[in-house]
Amino acid sequence: MNANGKPSASAPAAGNFRDFGMDTITLAGPLEARLAAMRAAGFEQVMLSARDLVGHPQGVDAAVQAVRDSGLRVTGFQVLRDFEGLSGHLHAYKVDVAKSMLEMCHAVGAKVLLACSSTSSHASDSVADMARDLRKLAMLAVPMGIRVAFEALSWGRSVNEFTQAWEIVERADAPNLGLGLDAFHLLAMKTPLDALDLVDPDKIFLVQLADFMWQEIRSVEERISTARHFRVFPGEGVHNEALADMVTRLSQMGYRGDYSFEVFNDDYQQMPLPTVAARARRSADWLTEGVLRRSVPLPGSMQLKALR
Questions:
Q1: What predicted TM-score, i.e. pTM, was given to this entire model?
Q2: How crowded is residue 72: how many other Cβ atoms within 10 Å of its Cβ?
Q3: Which residues, by range, are in coiled-coil regions (predicted)?
Q4: Is 47 strand, coil or helix?
Q5: How confident is the model at residue 202 (pLDDT cuts 50, 70, 90)?
Q6: Following CA atoms 6, 38, 212, 29 in sequence, which dihedral angle do they give, to the nearest 10 degrees?
Q7: What pLDDT, on the 0 to 100 scale, is given for residue 294?
Q8: Is the pLDDT reported for residue 43 higher than 90?
Q9: Longest dimension (CA), the chain
Q10: For 133-176, what is each residue's pLDDT tens digit?
C-alpha cells in the first residue's frame, strides 16, 4: 500500500470508478439533494466545501449528519486560502481560520484539507517562509489524522505552477503535507506534463479534474472567470487529449489516490441535479473505461458519445 492508502505502483493501472467523485460546488440546491443526486448516479465519494457546512439552514451539526447519512465517503475538504507567507497579526488570524477549517474537516471524516496558493499582496514570496508556514499547518493537522494538499492556483501571486508548489512541499518536508493537482490550472498554464515526472506520486494527495471550452486563455482575468464560471467535465471540453495524457501519466507513475470533478459552471447550476450528475457519471466512465483501462484514444475520437 502507498501513502494514498491504495495499491502500490506494482498493481495494475486499470481504472476504478470508485476512485472518482464529485465536488458539491458543481450542483445547485440543498446539501441533502446534491448528496442524493451523486449517490443516485453511482458515486461513492464527495468533495465538500466549508460553505456546505456553515451555509446549512440547520447549522453545521445538521450538515455533518447529512453527510454521514448519505453514505458517501468524503474525498476532502476545501479550501484554505492565502495561508502561507504572512506575518504578525495576519499570520495569527490565518492560523485561527486554519484551526476552524481543520475542525470541520475532521467532523465530516475528511482525511485531506485543500490549501491553495496565496493571492495576497501582503504575503512573502520567500520559499523558506512559505515552507515554514505550510509545515506549521501540517503539524496542526497531525492530531486529527488529516493530510494537507497544497495546490498552485494559476493566478497565485508567487506560486502558480504545480512545480513551484512541489518545491515548497519538498522544502517543508512534513509527512502529511503533499500536493493537490487541479487539471484546470495545468491546462490554463499549459504546464508541460513531463514535469509530473519530478513529483513523488506518494506525495500527491488529491487530483481535481475539469476542462473548458476554448483553446486559449489570454489574460489572468479570463483565467479566473473561466475557472469560476465555465469549467466542464472531462470529455466535454477541447483538451481531452491532454486530460487523458495527464490521468494516464499519473496512473503509470503509481498514483492510486482519488480524483474529484471540480467543475464550476453557471449553466450546470441551472440544470436538474440528476442531469448534471449523469454528465459527471459519463465523464467518470470515459476516464475509467476509455482512458485508464485501454490505450489513450486518438485525438478527435474522445468526445463523450452521449453528449454528441
A1: 0.89
A2: 22
A3: none
A4: strand
A5: very high
A6: -140
A7: 55
A8: yes
A9: 55
A10: 999 999 999 999 999 999 999 999 999 999 999 999 999 999 99
What is the set of domains in the chain, with CATH numbers?
Answer: 17-293 (3.20.20.150)
Q: Distance between CA 78 and CA 211 in Å, rounded?
A: 20
Helix intervals (H) in 41-161: 50-54, 60-70, 88-107, 127-141
The pairing of strands 45-49 and 112-116 is unpaired
CA–CA distance, 234 with 212 (Å, rounded to integer): 9
How many angstroms separate the CA atoms of 71 and 292, rounded? 26
Cβ neighbourhood burial of 44 (10 Å; 0-12, 13-18, 19+): middle
Q: How many CA atoms lie within 13 A of 38 on its CB side?
A: 31
Specify the range with the lowest mean pLDDT, choosing from 25-34, 131-140, 222-231, 260-269: 222-231
Question: Dihedral, CA atoms, 211, 127, 200, 143, nearest 10 degrees?
Answer: -100
Radius of gyration of the chain (CA): 18
Please report which confidence band the pLDDT of residue 226 belongs to, taking 50, 70 and 90 as the band edges: confident
Q: How many residues does the chain have?
A: 308
How far CA 282 is from CA of 77, 278, 279, 306, in Å, comes to 24, 6, 5, 8
C-alpha cell at 1: 500500500
